[in-house]
Every structure is written in structure tokens, then in C-alpha cells.
Amino acid sequence: MADVQQIPDSARTPDGAVVRRVLAFGAHPDDLDFGAAGTIAAWAAAGAEIHYGIMTDGDAGGFDPDQRDEIVATRRDEQRSAAARVGAREVHFLGYRDGYLEPSHEVRRDVVRLIRTVRPDVVLSMHPERNWASLHMSHPDHLACGEAVTRAVYPAAENPFAYPELADGGLGAYRVPWLWLYGAPEGRINHTVDVTAHVEAKLEAIRVHLSQHSDFEATERYVRARLLATAASAGFAEGASGEGFHVVAVNAKDTIAGF
């Protein structure tokens, strides 16, 4: 980790705390790259340890019917490579079926297990609310990912009596300080990260997912436009790029348990 005084605002929480360890969840391989890879790259560049939790295998993705027997392995390889582009340390695959994800106790237990293993400063996840401005952002698996993670963060991860088999296996309760949600409806965004210095790393990560896009030039134009629009909405300097989040202080400095 770099000298604390030299760490930029892009690698801090809203209260100024340095982000040192992150557990980032996506429903499918590539969700994190589209939704938050610029911010992840900023955190990693400042020395944070980044873990990914990918909930489904993305087995319903792609375009080629002849790929069906290979698509899971392909998408896992793509996600590992994309994660490396932005400095993520490890990718954990939960292995659920693409298109069938639900915020079940099985999924939530797997999320709690990862949270208690990694013990992150920030849990990053997809937003659990439907975004009527973009149904593509509100894929049912995306909503299920957000709901499962939110329920896992509170109260399950910090409740020593939730999923006792985890505690019996040495994974004790853990209080997550911050929950950051990406893909949020515009009215929910309350924090924007300046990712201007990390746009190319984000695009490199997206580009790796060759099985999922047939026209990368169009994808790149779309991503750049969204980053510029997000930064402009936050009042950043002209030409800056930003990623927006709904940030929730779960157990931050001034949090009182239960309130």
C-alpha cells in the first residue's frame, strides 16, 4: 500500500478511509468489467487487494451454438484475464447456472462464506433495484446478485448465529464497513469515482470478453460515452470519466449497530 497521504480520492471511501481490501460481486463474467472496472483499477493501483466473486458461469452467454460445450471454460478464462488487466488478485467462481440465479439461502451462504474469508473494507455488488431506464442493466440475475449480496452483508455476515456451519469451520462473523452498488438507477447514485486515469484499463478488461461482443468499436463508444456522462453529472471537469455508485455505510465510523 502506498503512503496514505499520497492515496488519491478515487481510492478512498466517502469518509476518507483508504480502501485496502475489496470483494466485488458480479452475476456473470464481464459484469464487473462493464460496471466498475475503472474504480477497481484505481483501488488496485493504490495497493488494494481485490477479489472477485462471480455468481454464475455465464453458460447462457455468447453467440455461437457450437460453443456450448466450451462456453463455461471460455468465460472463466476471459474473466481471469480481464481481472488481471485491472489488478484484481483472485477470481472466485460460485458456479450457479446463468439465468437461474435467485437470492436463496444457498447463494447467500456462499456469499457470506466469501465475505468472512476475505474480510473486505468494501463489498461491491450489482444493484438490487430494477432500473426502468435500462432493462438491460436489470437482468434478473443482476437483481438476484444485488439482493443476495445485500442480504448477506446485513445481517448474515455479521451474525455469529447465521449459517453456524461456517463458524464451525473457522469463519467467524464479520462486520462489513461499506457496501457499494453499481448499475444503480440514476436517482440512487450518491458517489462518483473519477476513473479518467483508468479508462484504458477498463476497456482492455472489456475487450477480453471476446465471446460476448461482436462489435467492440460500438461497445467502446458506448462505454466511453457513459463514463463521460457520469462524470459530467457529478460536476467533474470537462473530459473526465466517472463511474457512479449507490454507496451504503453499513458499519462505518459513526454507525450504531441496529440503527
Care to describe what's here?
There is one protein chain. By secondary structure, the chain is α/β, with parallel strands linked by helices. Helix content is 35%, strand content 17%. The protein is built from 7 helices and 7 strands. Strands 3-2-1-4-5-7-6 form a 7-stranded mixed sheet, with helices on both faces. Strand 2, helix 2 (71-85) and strand 3 (90-96) form a beta-alpha-beta unit. Helix 1 crosses helix 6 (199-207) and helix 3 (105-118) packs across helix 4 (140-153). It is globular. The protein starts with 20 loop residues before the first strand and ends in a 10-residue tail after the last strand. The mean pLDDT is 94.
Q: Helix and strand layout, with pairings?
A:
Elements: E1 21-26, H1 31-45, E2 49-56, H2 71-85, E3 90-96, H3 105-118, E4 122-126, H4 140-153, H5 164-168, E5 178-182, E6 191-194, H6 199-207, H7 216-233, E7 242-249
Parallel strand pairs: 1-2, 1-4, 2-3, 4-5
Antiparallel strand pairs: 5-7, 6-7
